[in-house]
Amino acid sequence: RRRRRCTRDASRFSRGRSGFGLVRRGKKHRRLNSVEESLVEMASEMVKAATSEKLKEMDWAKNIEICELVAQDPGKAKDVIKSIKKCIGSRSKNAQLYAVMLLEMLMNNCGEPIHKQVIDNGLLPILVKIVKKKTELPVREKIFLLLDATQTSLGGAKGKFPQYYEAYYELVSAGVKFMNRPNVVITQVHNPVPEAIIEPNKDNLSSRSNGVQQEANVQPVSDTSIIRKASSVMEVLRDVLNSMDPRHPEGATDEFVLDLVEQCTFQKQRIMHLVMTSRG
Length: 280
Known about the structure:
CATH topology of one domain: Serine Threonine Protein Phosphatase 5, Tetratricopeptide repeat
CATH architecture of one domain: Alpha Horseshoe
Family: Belongs to the TOM1 family.
Keywords: Membrane, Protein transport, Transport
Strand content: under 5%
Helix content: 55-70%
Shape: globular
Oligomer: single chain
Number of helices: 12
Radius of gyration: 23 Å
Main location: membrane
Subcellular location: Membrane
Low-confidence stretches: 7-29, 180-200, 204-220
InterPro entries: ENTH_VHS, GAT_dom, GAT_sf, TOL_plant, VHS_dom
């Protein structure tokens, strides 16, 4: 009887691919077939390439490629987030920062599948822990602003994913804040700037920007218009910054300047979306 019982228990397990690991049979513990394994490996390699510590700056092409992968097959979000989680836990400051930047791009362009996997894979507590530590400032600030923007865009505590609000609120309750920086990064702004390039006069810019708010989102805009508007707001911000006195950098935190920064963030996302859709 004892031998039969051992045999029966052993039949519930099978050897893994290497011959040494045991893989539990059943719905939740089935073995991956060769195709699934290759797809998981592909996603992992793409994330590794996009977050390599050898990069001198973020690789936009690789990041967009990963966004396209998830957009075409939301099921890939799980593998991508798992790989990002490993990179965020890296000791390399560059790899960690690039991983957070990739995560931001995925959140902004792929939405719900990414948000769900971030929660399911326990990534939020890790992000909170990094911000609470006295780590490199760019990484901490990037994560803090990302959590703030995400929880705001998702509806806060009453939204579909309140976990983001809880993570952000935990940081705020702990006294985390970054001075001389905008506290909120708007990922979806509904007030595009006018198409024409405007002289860097603050009063003119403010009145013109307010006037455009009434015309926003009335009709779908063409690709050319999107590019023109992005170019316009970038030139306006550049002119405003160039007109400031370097001896008084506090002027860069002016509400009007921060509004232009938010506009640039929005236009950047529109351009990225345009690139992704045009490549398809």
